[in-house]
Specification:
This protein has 360 residues and is α/β, with parallel strands linked by helices. The chain is 31% helix and 14% strand. A 6-stranded parallel sheet has the order 5-4-1-13-14-15, sandwiched between helices. Bound molecules: SN-glycerol-3-phosphate (G3P) and magnesium ion (MG).
């Protein structure tokens, strides 16, 4: 039974105490499916905004393996799609944590993959990468590098003029799901097998490649949009790349860095973001360990482990919903969550009731 919404903001000398729980929400399959909002999300946000048995606002962040645009652009799009006024510090995308390592590559040429035209180049530059290049730049430089794709006028307009024979690329960052797997696999191979100089002869089969990191930001094999069956995600691209690398060289590429749920690095980054937000809500005061609310992660994807195993590994409570990749008809999930809920609204309701009964 939802109680009346909490009274409006009062002039307090100190901020309201934090509730006993906070949430981290996955996006695709929990809040939205492609362009469509999942109806239960509206009820969930109403409860988070104070219309709940505790009668208080409940803080939350969004943690997604999605991305492809800057956090501010995603905030605007999601706020409109979900009908809530999100803050940019509530949004952690697959590549957001690259902000914390961009300084290491600030002056080094890197290849960035994913998304349309050069949108991820702009995201990379906003993080501090000063020489971020796309596979479309390579095609503009030498169309014969991949003769099976002709640049559209829009793609050509997005390219930069670069001589890759004299521009050693120091790393590859897969910011988001590549749109042209064949082109991106070919150019990635060229970079990794030729000491970063595209067009140089490839290393001999069996030779150990130089340590040029290939950084993936999302391990999802599958994800859920409006289509009735889950779609292949960036993890499938990674596996396709490794299959080709193995066929060409005899082994998987060894210098792979994986970020995204459920990696510890991403959950550590998200935990920092969550605590910084809670501290900001508390007037900027650092939170003592005993003040930290219990974190509930609500996700939809148990099989490739991002939402459930990651949350469990981070010491968070995990709630698996049935509106995304997970289909109860397929039997129990590979990674056991704290709770399975029909949708995000029933997940929020269950967590609130659980905390209230624990407090009695
Ligand atoms: O590309 C997005 C997809 O991999 C899953 O996103 O929000 O379910 O973590 P999300
Ligand atoms: Mg999801």
């Amino acid at each position: 039974m939802a109680s009346a919404p909490s009274p409006g903001p009062r002039h307090r000398s100190s901020p309201a105490p934090l509730p006993p729980l906070v949430f981290t929400f996955d996006i695709d399959g929990v809040l939205i499916r492609g362009a469509q909002i999942i109806p239960a999300a509206r009820k969930a946000f109403d409860m988070l905004n104070g219309n709940n048995p505790m009668g208080v606002k409940i803080p939350y962040i969004l943690l997604t393996n999605g991305g492809g645009v800057g956090e501010e652009a995603r905030r605007l799009k999601l706020s409109k799609q979900l009908g809530v006024d999100l803050d940019v510090d509530q949004i952690v995308q697959a590549h957001t944590m690259l902000k914390s390592i961009a300084h290491k590559y600030a002056d080094k040429p890197v290849l960035v993959l994913g998304g349309r035209t050069d949108v991820v180049r702009k995201v990379a530059e906003s993080y501090g990468f000063k020489h971020a290049y796309t596979t479309l730049d390579v095609l503009a430089w030498k169309p014969e590098a991949w003769p099976f794709h002709e640049l559209t006028p829009e793609e050509r307009a997005s390219t930069q003029s670069v001589d890759f024979s004299t521009t050693p690329l120091s790393a590859i960052f897969v910011f988001h799901d590549p749109r042209n797997w064949s082109l991106d696999i070919q150019i990635s191979l060229d970079v990794l097998l030729s000491h970063g100089l595209i067009g140089n002869t490839h290393l001999l089969r069996g030779a150990s490649p130089p340590a040029i990191d290939m950084v993936f930001c999302n391990p999802d094999l599958l994800w859920k949009n409006e289509f009735p069956v889950p779609r292949l995600g960036q993890g499938a691209f990674r596996d396709a790349f490794q299959a080709v690398h193995t066929a060409v060289t005899g082994a998987k590429y060894p210098h792979v860095v994986q970020y995204g749920k459920p990696t510890r690095a991403t959950y550590a980054f998200a935990t920092r973001v969550l605590y910084d937000r809670l501290a900001a809500l508390q007037g900027g005061r650092a939170l003592a360990q005993e003040q930290l609310p219990r974190v509930y992660m609500v996700g939809d994807n148990p099989e490739s482990a991002p939402d459930i195993a990651g949350a469990n590994g981070a010491g968070w409570e995990s709630v698996l919903v049935e509106t995304g990749v997970y289909d109860p008809a397929e039997g129990p999930p590979a990674h056991v969550p704290t709770h399975i809920a029909t949708n995000v609204a029933s997940a929020v309701q269950w967590a609130i009731e659980r905390e209230m009964s624990a407090a009695q």
